[in-house]
Amino acid sequence: MRIKVVIADDEPLIRAGIRMILTSDPAIEVAAEAANGREAIEAARAHGADVVLLDIQMPVMDGLTALAELRRSTPAARVIILTTFGERENVLRALEHGGAGFLLKDTAPAELIAAVRAAAAGDAYLSPGATRHVVDQLATGRAAARGEEARRRVEVLSARERDVLALLGEGLSNADAGKRLHMSEATVKTYVSRILAKLECENRVQAALLARDAGL
User: What pTM, to 2 d.p., does this model score?
Assistant: First the structure.
């Protein structure tokens, strides 16, 4: 079964570029394109999308509004936000409301494909470089208000679980976290699942934000 993707962006050239990259992977099928959030919702429903690549700034219905509706109406579809560094606050809102990750519009083709594959597999995609930069910036502005609550929540974790959570906050993949902690990738994946359950986080991105807020 190929991964069905909906590309939502109001710029035709960007959609065409993303389509060209994604269709180079035989495991991915671009099921539809959309020029605004409303079209993205309709396309995701009609095609049973596995992943929706969703731009934030679009006419008719913006990406954040569409994300909220997709989480209600098509919860099986994983949403990856397309963004720029100039939209940090919107990115935070998107991640907090269940986005499966985010990508910069100038991301490398291999990273775009990896993000779609990761989202379809149930993981949120954390771009190591871009995610660390954006999360650092976002966490700084809200650290005082969020830090105490985050520290309280992570108290339920064991010491080893906190170690794994801290590496999620750095944007490391399961494989890279395993190397750092001298654990197998499968063991790290088990820890991640346990951490998400204990913290009641919907995905790795929310857990990463929590780790940063807690100062891990």
Answer: 0.65
